[in-house]
UniProtKB/TrEMBL annotation:
Protein name per Swiss-Prot or TrEMBL: Peptidase M50
Peptidase M50 domain sequence ranges: 151-181
Topology class, membrane: Multi-pass membrane protein
Keywords: Membrane, Transmembrane, Transmembrane helix
Record-level GO cellular component terms: membrane
Coiled-coil region(s): none
UniProt-listed GO biological process terms: proteolysis
Protein species of origin: Pyrobaculum islandicum (strain DSM 4184 / JCM 9189 / GEO3)
Length: 201
């Protein structure tokens, strides 16, 4: 019963965060905020696109963290941050840009089962999200070349940018944990993500 409650709560948190982020990105793409002008018709047109892209870029990122943590023996689940999540709509609505802090995968500090190297575990779990974004970015580039579609360019670019941003060595971001636990691998991965952002710019 308790596990069912947690699964339901996580699903609700993921769904709410996805919808809020999709709306925020659509508003940002359709204008410069209410003072600079927003084309609400474009917001409606962009919303399915941002939802589709973030379904992979955001949900894929968070589930990658969660699944790797669980495979390594930890309890892990996504929790939305309802204090910061509204900023994903408020900032694009008023100022035209997105600040996304929708929540994070919360991981127990102790293993529930199995044994392993804690330093290695930290790197694997932190790297899982950005690596999922890199994989989606490469898939987007492939589809972009095959179908010549701007939607797949946007898909590839958002995933590449999220991978690069999350790998910056700043506190709370994945890159901070990655750089401390395996500097060489972190450096290779952030250069790869940066290169993807550069070629898609």
């Amino acid at each position: 019963m308790y596990d069912q409650h947690l699964r339901k709560r996580e699903l609700i948190d993921l769904a709410i965060a996805l919808v809020v982020l999709s709306i925020g990105f659509a508003i940002s793409m359709a204008g410069r905020g209410i003072f600079g002008g927003i084309n609400w018709g474009l917001v409606a047109r962009y919303l399915p696109v941002t939802f589709f892209v973030l379904l992979f870029a955001f949900i894929g990122h968070e589930l990658a963290h969660r699944q790797v943590a669980r495979r390594l023996g930890y309890f892990a689940m996504f929790q939305a941050d309802y204090t910061l999540l509204p900023l994903a709509i408020i900032l694009p609505l008023f100022f035209g840009f997105v600040f996304a802090a929708p929540g994070a995968v919360v991981i127990s500090p102790f293993r529930l089962y199995g044994r392993g190297d804690e330093r290695r575990d930290v790197f694997y779990i932190a790297a899982a999200g950005p690596l999922a974004n890199v994989a989606f970015a490469l898939l987007g580039i492939l589809f972009m070349e095959l179908f010549k579609s701007g939607i797949f360019w946007f898909f590839a670019y958002i995933n590449a940018w999220l991978a690069f941003f999350n790998m910056l060595p700043l506190p709370t971001l994945d890159g901070s944990k990655m750089a401390k636990s395996n500097f060489i691998m972190w450096l290779i991965l952030i250069i790869t993500a940066g290169w993807l952002v550069y070629i898609l710019w």
